[in-house]
Amino acid sequence: MARNICITSIEGQTGFLIAELLLTDDRFQPRIDSLTGLALDPSSPKAKELQALGAVIAAHTPGRARDVVATLQKTACDTLCLVPPARSDKLDIALELAEAAKKAGVANVLLISAAGCDYAERAAQPRLREFVDLESVVLSAKGDPESALGIRLVAGFYAENLLLYSEQARNEGLLPLPIGENHKFAPIALGDVSLVAAHVLTGKGPHGFDDRHRGQLMVLTGPMLCSGKELAESASKALGQTMEFDNISEREAKRVLKSQTDLDDSEKEYILDYYSLVREGKTNYISTTAFHDVTGQHPTEPDEFFRNYAGELRPKKKLRSS
């Protein structure tokens, strides 16, 4: 059974890592016939890197749905991984892609969504709430929510977002987050999300996706609920130097995101919306069952995550012994 996979937004971190894993990991590479990456910017470094690994890179121009249909048909795509782009018009783009998949006869679609979006209030967390609309759009495009299209991989707050404050970590030994003193959440490593996606995209059954996966709503969080102080303690253990949690205001978090990152404004707003959800106490849960069931492994613990990124976070000079 052929498996010709197309992944959208491959110049972004999520789409890129899923594609890279499929192209380089011996568990998955033999199980796919081809991989096409839809890129809003085909000249981006990530697009070029994937092309060097064997992916076919196709330009995706929003508003040109006919071109997307043609690309899906030309590559005999039977499986689409729909990764919403980090743009303010992500909902419109997702609708266009879902409709294109339907017109091209793509049997299997995996949507990467956002955990917690159903707890978000439209007035308070509009960027997060968008994912509720996005899920509805993608499912309704097929017309049958019980079909293979109805797989939603709902990932929580990416732990990599903590690296946006690496400047404070290196220069001041601080982990600044606007989440309050006692509220908790369970950040998940992006690599764990990519691993689940790779298993799902290459899983095969008589109806397309593996019957153990198709139709599933897979909610993914990290394996440990953490307050800001507990995250700082994990970072301290991994780095061998004391890191301290700094409970900053939302205004300060917004200023830092603006000055230290080149993220799209809508992505900054999404991150701030999630922090707002944490402060409201709506992220006080973990969901690792799907990860265990799909991969047979254990998700990345906070200590391990910080060890993996020690080079980016380690203070430039020793601040205080832990």
UniProtKB/TrEMBL annotation:
Coiled coil: none annotated. Residues 41-280 form the NmrA-like domain. Keywords: NADP. GO terms for cellular component: nucleus. Pfam families: NmrA (PF05368). PANTHER family: NITROGEN METABOLITE REPRESSION PROTEIN NMRA FAMILY MEMBER, NMRA-LIKE DOMAIN-CONTAINING PROTEIN. Belongs to the NmrA-type oxidoreductase family. This is NmrA-like domain-containing protein. It comes from Chaetomium globosum (strain ATCC 6205 / CBS 148.51 / DSM 1962 / NBRC 6347 / NRRL 1970).
